[in-house]
Amino acid sequence: MTHAALTRLQDGLAALQADHLERRRLLLDGVQGARVTIDGRRVVSFCSNDYLGLAAEPALVRAAHAALDKCGVGAGAAHLIAGHHRFHEDFEAAFARFVGKPAALLFTTGYMANLGVLTALLGRRGEVFGDKLNHASLVDAAQLSGATLTRYRHNDLAQLEGQLAASKAQDKLIASDLVFSMDGDIAPVDALLDLAERHDAWLYLDDAHGFGVLNDGRGGLSERARASDRVIYLATLGKAAGVAGAAVAAHASVIDWLIQKARPYIYTTASPPLLAACLLESLRQIAAGDARRERLRGHVAQLREGLAGLKHGALLPSDTPIQPLVVGTNDAAVRLSQALLQRGLLVAAIRAPTVPVNTARLRITLSAAHSADDVALLVEALHAVA
């Protein structure tokens, strides 16, 4: 007989399916890119975070092949035992120089980096002030840190200032996405830094979707934020950088403290050194990537102009490669996504709880690897099926 707990799981899965909230994995064959083979079908993909088209960049592939002969595949140990390879060390130094911070630390994933930073810097006498649209990893990290979690309305600096002023916490930390992953808008970095200085708080900025893309590729930090000792900067390296992992850059004392106290860094095997070698080449590609970024900006402008008169759904304001088309219900988003797939276009339907109820959307993500014809094809298809 089926036991009660399993029955409850099965009932829950059935409810998700009925509410158009069931998720399933698409099976990718071959390399990531503007055109991919998904579930055996060749499609144009508008749902990848490979914003600069570096995931299959030949220079990175060559770097991986060259590194294999020097470091093998696995790291073999945690960083603090015997797994910290020279490739890791060289990348951390290069990344810190590139983003304009004194020191950096490489984590296996962005999720682990957020968990590591917040749990290392805060405890029961701390308080995290988080934007309500922050990524789930920032929310989880704040909760696991033992600190009080206080959330403010999206980019509502007046509410945030009131919360900071009322706080009695010994250690305060403002945590915010820099580019918000489901809306595509950008946090007001200098205004957040003003509040951090006024109320003696850390400012932690998760730039998962801005690094490599914004400004000259160094991400969304202002020059003032780069120079501030209280700003801690995170860049995810599996998106525009095209590889994997995440790097945190900050004052050298912050990085030294994370090495001693960040449990997701200490208690896990180091990432394969060959990935760090690939990331070194990725930094070179990003630094020389003005043409890619210009092409990407052109795609954003083309899409927004082409969808300005769309009858069903509206693009949220965004100058980034994340272009959310809000359609409302889960069913509408799923049907629209499926209709596009029938035309050979892969665009993800995003539903609650990832976004608020009744704001289900197509999350269109653009890449420098797309052509203008690809974008035109998507615009035409959306007008036809919406």
Describe this protein's structure.
Strand 1 and strand 2 (35-38) form a beta hairpin. This protein starts with a helix and ends with a helix. The chain folds into two domains: 20-52 and 290-385, Aspartate Aminotransferase, domain 1 (Alpha-Beta Complex); 58-287, Aspartate Aminotransferase, domain 2 (3-Layer(aba) Sandwich). The protein is 43% helix and 18% strand. With 386 residues, the chain is of the alpha/beta class. The strands form three sheets. The chain has a seven-stranded mixed beta sheet, sandwiched between helices. Strands 1-2-3-13 form a four-stranded mixed beta sheet, covered by helices on one side. A four-stranded antiparallel beta sheet has the order 11-12-15-14, with helices on one face. The chain has helices at 4-18, 58-71, 79-83, 86-99, 110-121, 136-144, 157-166, 189-198, 223-227, 252-261, 263-266, 273-287, 290-306, 330-342, 372-385; strands spanning 28-29, 35-38, 41-45, 103-107, 126-131, 148-152, 171-177, 202-206, 231-236, 246-250, 314-315, 322-328, 345-346, 348-350, 360-365. It is built from 15 helices and 15 strands.
Can you describe this structure in just a few lines?
The protein is α/β, with parallel strands linked by helices and 386 residues long.
Number of domains: 2
> Helix count, per DSSP?
15
Beta-strand share of residues:
15-25%
Q: What's the helical proportion of residues?
A: 40-55%
CATH topology of the largest domain: Aspartate Aminotransferase, domain 2
Within the largest sheet, what's the order of strands? 4-10-9-8-7-5-6
Average pLDDT value?
A: 96
Shape: globular
Q: What's the total number of strands?
A: 15
User: What's the CATH H-level superfamily name of the largest domain?
Assistant: Type I PLP-dependent aspartate aminotransferase-like (Major domain)
The structural class is alpha/beta
Whole-angstrom Rg: 21 Å
Top-tier CATH class of the largest domain? Alpha Beta
What is the H/E string?
HEEEHHHEHEHEHEHEHEEHHHHEEHEEEH
Reported CATH architecture of the largest domain:
3-Layer(aba) Sandwich
What's the N-to-C terminus distance?
47 Å
Main beta sheet, described? 7 strands, mixed
Q: Give start-end ranges of low-pLDDT stretches.
A: none
